[in-house]
Design a protein that fits this description.
The protein has 121 residues and is mainly beta. Helices cover 0% and strands 52% of the residues. The protein has no helices and 11 strands. The strands form 2 sheets. Strands 2, 4, 5, 6, 9, 10 and 11 form a 7-stranded mixed sheet that branches. Strands 1-3-8-7 form a 4-stranded antiparallel sheet, with no helix packed on it. Strand 9 and strand 10 form a beta hairpin. The N and C termini lie far apart (40 Å).
Length: 121
């Protein structure tokens, strides 16, 4: 049974930090690229960051470059998103997904239920 579970969201002040974690199971984690997406109320889901199967290649949305860092541990089957210098516009539900490298939601096969990140001004 495939499961993708995000954790680490919460309420933080502007300029603060959060570390999101993703725990996938039920599929070959090391065989997939992974991505973090987010969706704010009334907006479309957008790609935040992506990482290839080995962790050797990463990419970020322009809005988070220099502030967010994606990483993975293929031994522990874990995906992370370190978020620093958070801004109110980062407020959204954040999703972890497994699929093809890139920012296209349609390219991802397995999705988590999301974790809420709220940044207060």
């Amino acid at each position: 049974q495939v499961q993708v579970v995000e954790s680490g969201g919460g309420l933080v002040q502007t300029g603060g930090s959060l570390r999101l974690s993703c725990t996938p199971s039920g599929f070959n984690f090391g065989g997939y690229s992974m991505g973090w997406f987010r969706q704010a109320p009334g907006k479309e889901r957008e790609g935040v960051s992506t990482i290839n199967w080995s962790g050797s290649r990463t990419d970020y949305a322009d809005s988070v470059k220099g502030r967010f860092t994606i990483s993975r541990d293929n031994v522990k089957n874990m995906l992370y998103l370190q978020m620093n210098s958070l801004k109110p516009e980062d407020t959204a539900v954040y999703y972890c997904a497994a699929g093809s490298y890139g920012f296209r939601p349609a390219g991802y096969k397995y999705w988590g239920q999301g974790t809420q990140v709220t940044v207060s001004s």
